Amino acid sequence: HALGKRLTEENHRFDLIYSSDAERAHHTALIASTHLGYPVEKIRVTPQLAEVSQGDWEGKIRAEIFTPSRMQEVSGDPLHFQAPNGESQHDARLRMNGILDEMIREHGASSLQIAAFSHGYAIRSLVGHLLDASAMMTRQIITHNTSLTVLRWKDPMWLIDRINDYAHLKGSSFIDHY
User: Fold this and answer.
1) What is the pLDDT of residues 40-83, one digit of tens each?
2) C-alpha to C-alpha distance for 93 and 84, rounded to whole angstroms
3) What is the tens place of the pLDDT at every residue in 108-132?
4) Average pLDDT score over the chain
5) Are 14 and 41 in contact (CB under 8 A)?
6) How far apart are CA 98 and CA 92, in angstroms?
7) Residue 18: alpha-carbon gap to chain centroid
8) CB-based contacts of 23: which residues, under 8 Å, 6+ apart?
9) Of the candidates 73, 154, 156, 162, which lies 20 to 30 Å from 130 by C-alpha distance?
């Protein structure tokens, strides 16, 4: 609700809204869209905005999976490391960049305002790709839940306007878990 209120107060008007097919991201998109007066039935739901897949490790306790020896394995090739039947940071970079390419192909380089509700590590992977950052550097980017990361298309590239802007959560204990 805080995100929806902020977007409304700042007079954001979106021509299109995309959402991950994950329930939590889609729910956030529904709430924000309602605040904005955007028709929720027009939200474009796509798996391309999903969080990085942890494959066989989905739903397992992180501390049991990411042991010191596993973390050493990850640090050996953080860009290509992936859980069994999961996705690497490289895979996520390509998938997330793919949806940006798709938006440009579908809508051209117009001045459309598009919101996309996605997930922290997927967003960090995309930002890392756009910055041509190392995989370890990408892991150091923080993206709080409901934070704003704003990209602008300036042919022939995406410009990063903001990363992890969570001013609407000021004073909330919600962000203390980082």
Assistant:
1) 999 999 999 999 999 999 999 999 999 999 999 999 999 999 99
2) 18
3) 767 789 999 999 999 999 999 999 9
4) 93
5) no
6) 9
7) 11
8) none
9) 73
| Residue 10 structure tokens | 């700042």
What does the H/E/C string look like for the chain? Answer: CHHHHHHHHCCCCCCEEEEECCHHHHHHHHHHHHHHCCCHHHCEEEHHHCCCCCHHHCCCCHHHHCCHHHHHHHHHCCCCCCCCCCCCHHHHHHHHHHHHHHHHHHHCCCCCCEEEECCHHHHHHHHHHHHCCCHHHHHCCCCCCCCEEEEEEECCEEEEEEEEECHHHCCCHHHHHC
CA–CA dist 176, 107 (Å, integer): 38
3-state secondary structure 64-91: HHCCHHHHHHHHHCCCCCCCCCCCCHHH
Cα separation of 149 and 60, whole Å?
A: 28
